[in-house]
């Protein structure tokens, strides 16, 4: 069986992982990185997906080797990063222009907000913890907000 190496080069505006072959051809994953790959050809990084590879004769008996995707966060990790950032923004607003009003917090009150932030932070493995906030930062928010 022939092998084709595809290197991950980024994610397009529709959250589709984009790959490039050694020959310079562009491929997109229609499953947006969730589960098994559903590859299509594409004319360019920002272009629309074109032909599904299972329609192309030369790719029917090809094993695809994907390079560079292993360090990409999963969909759940992406959500948790975004949620933690949102909760941090709420805390900053609460301490600033939010007039220390609990209704401006996602959780509705300080204690539940901090519990959720700790839960999200601790959901990451040590090598994937966010660099923009630490557990000490969360404890500092807790101290300032109570």
Automatic annotation (TrEMBL):
Name listed for the protein in its UniProt record: Large polyvalent protein-associated domain-containing protein
Family matches, as Pfam families: LPD11
Highest taxon of the lineage: Bacteria
Keywords (A to Z) from UniProt: Plasmid
Domain named Large polyvalent protein-associated: residues: 78-145
């Amino acid at each position: 069986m022939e092998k084709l190496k595809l290197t991950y080069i980024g994610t397009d505006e529709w959250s589709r992982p984009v790959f490039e072959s050694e020959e310079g051809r562009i491929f997109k994953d229609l499953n947006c990185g969730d589960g098994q790959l559903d590859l299509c050809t594409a004319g360019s990084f920002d272009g629309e997906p074109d032909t599904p590879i299972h329609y192309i004769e030369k790719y029917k008996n090809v094993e695809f080797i994907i390079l560079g995707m292993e360090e990409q966060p999963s969909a759940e990790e992406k959500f948790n990063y975004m949620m933690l950032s949102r909760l941090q923004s709420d805390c900053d607003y609460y301490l600033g222009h939010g007039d220390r009003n609990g209704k401006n917090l996602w959780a509705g009150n300080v204690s539940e907000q901090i519990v959720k932030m700790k839960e999200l932070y601790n959901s990451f493995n040590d090598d994937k913890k966010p660099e923009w906030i630490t557990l000490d930062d969360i404890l500092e928010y807790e101290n300032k907000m109570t």
